[in-house]
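User: Can you help me understand a structure? I only have the sequence.
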Amino acid sequence: MDINILLGEFFGTMILVLLGNGVVANVLLTDSKANGSGWMVISSGWAFAVLVGVFVALAFGAPAHINPAVTIGFAISSGDFSNVFPFISVQLLGAMVGAVLVYLHFGPHWKVTEDAGLKLASFSTGPAIRNTGWNIVSEAIGTFVLVLGVAAIFAGDMSAGLGPFMVGGLVWGIGLSLGGTTGYAINPARDFGPRLVHMLLPIPGKGGSDFAYGWIPVVGPIIGGAAAGAFMIFFPVF
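Assistant: Let's start by predicting it. Here is the structure, written out as tokens:
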């Protein structure tokens, strides 16, 4: 496999997490100038994070999955699983490096933020109402829409320049419409990698990393991505 493709998935996911978790930290951490600016800012920031991450990955010649659920979904729809392990490996590493950069960027804000939950939320997602079954359903539905939407965008006759903007808009729409239940991880690497970083880094007063919930934003998106892949087999218009 071309090393540039793996570098693209790595750096694309790194930028995704740096900007995506960055906007969450910007809104939640004490004494940030964006503190308290709300869900619209977070959803918008994540849309731009995806847009820039996709462009970075494409610049290296990668397919710009930057998400294990997308990789799994397209592997199922195509029947080609050769990219699954290498892509997921570099996506996870990229997400972890992105999370470390968020930690460094907001250096003094971790100490002055008293709420440990807000610190964790700057790395990983959590549910509004903790219910295992429904939380998995939420993550699966959101990811199904993501993978199917990405497939639909690139199935049509459109320029490579427009596609990433439409994917960013897709993620914006998912965040605004479906994100309030679980924080719409819809990406196992985006949640699990930064959660590991939260556990490992010496963040003042950070509290636990909530791995009791942490498996849900891994399993739910995989279910949703796999379901979208199966959907594309049965409806081969994509």
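Now, to help you interpret it: The radius of gyration is 17 Å. The CA atoms of residues 22 and 193 lie 15 Å apart. Let me know which part you'd like to focus on.
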